[in-house]
Automatic annotation (TrEMBL):
This is Oxidoreductase, aldo/keto reductase family protein. It is an enzyme of class 1 (oxidoreductase). It comes from Limosilactobacillus reuteri MM4-1A. Pfam families: Aldo_ket_red. Residues 24-270 form the NADP-dependent oxidoreductase domain. Signal peptide: none annotated. SUPFAM superfamilies: NAD(P)-linked oxidoreductase.
Length: 300
């Protein structure tokens, strides 16, 4: 049975290839298989149509089944959702290996294409060859758009020097505690859309006095204020929750606006500190023990 679309979740952003992406979506990092399947189903039932996963998360199969469950519950079809997955670091650098890996990922997701395919990390000496494979995947229709994650200015510049197709998106860590202004400015100047992972800063800001005061003034939650701060800057935002009520709450951010002064107050919280584990990756792609994460849902 078809459900009426929630108008709050209608805003979309046009990528540099013309493809439209919803501005608010659901990420499934650190979710177990059972949690992932249920949260994806619940997300679709609550009109979330952007779903973001990755091979590294170990839960693509659960995402695929959750999507099918959501379709059964709502009557939706494949073209009504925007599905993103990512290339695992260990599959980078080898054209044939990467393409085979993507075929396997699509099988797990129960689809013959994704709307967005991203390089998960800029692995040294491998990302340009990996990008060549993504360009062909895009040309063959297995991905409607292609992009990257965690690229800084140096590596994005190098990629653009070698690429035939410009990345549509750079997915980066972005929240009031880390703004990454150099790469944000570079991407905007080069028509590369920005997408925020860890938009709530792993929950570290939910008890912040500045955020709480602004939230009280708007009769909103601290999480809603933070997400609104990112939305107003034009970011695509990926939230993560296993609770249906919080999914609904996270979506209720299009009925209020933060003032310029409130935006500046939140801007001042910047510390330019990455997540505690971020430097483990650096640019080598496979830090010690990272292979142990594959296939284990809940891994980063």
């Amino acid at each position: 049975m078809n459900q009426p679309m929630n108008q709050n979740l209608q805003p979309k952003i046009k990528l540099n290839n013309g493809h439209l992406i919803p501005q608010l979506g659901l990420g499934v990092w650190k979710a177990s298989l059972a949690e992932t399947q249920q949260m994806v189903k619940e997300a679709i039932m609550n009109d979330y149509v952007l779903i973001d996963t990755a091979k590294q998360y170990g839960n693509e199969a659960a995402v695929g089944q959750g999507i099918q469950d959501g379709f059964k519950a709502t009557g939706r079809k494949r073209d009504s959702i925007f599905l993103t997955t990512k290339i695992f670091n260990g599959d980078q650098g080898d054209y044939d290996k990467l393409r085979q890996a993507v075929n396997e990922q699509l099988k797990k997701l129960q689809t013959n294409y994704v709307d967005l395919l991203l390089l998960h990390w800029p692995v040294n000496d491998k990302y340009n060859e990996s990008w060549r494979a993504l360009e062909d995947i895009y040309k063959d229709g297995q991905a409607k758009a292609i992009g990257v994650c965690n690229f800084n200015v140096e590596r994005m510049t190098d990629l653009l020097d070698h690429a035939k197709i410009k990345p549509a998106i750079n997915q980066i860590e972005f929240n009031p505690l880390i703004h990454q202004p150099k790469i944000v400015k570079f991407c905007r100047e080069n028509d590369i859309q920005l997408e925020a992972w860890s938009p709530l800063g792993n929950g570290r800001l939910l008890s912040n006095d500045v955020i709480k005061q602004i939230a009280d003034e708007h009769q909103k939650s601290p999480a809603q204020v933070i997400l609104r701060w990112e939305i107003q800057q034009g970011f695509i935002v990926l939230t993560k929750t296993t609770h249906p009520q919080r999914m609904k709450e996270n979506a209720e951010i299009f009925d209020f606006t933060l003032s310029p002064d409130e935006m500046k107050q939140i801007d001042k919280l910047d510390q330019e500190k990455h997540s505690i584990w971020y430097d483990k990756f650096k640019w080598s792609g496979n830090p010690d023990g990272v292979d142990d994460y594959i296939g284990k849902p809940g891994a980063f």
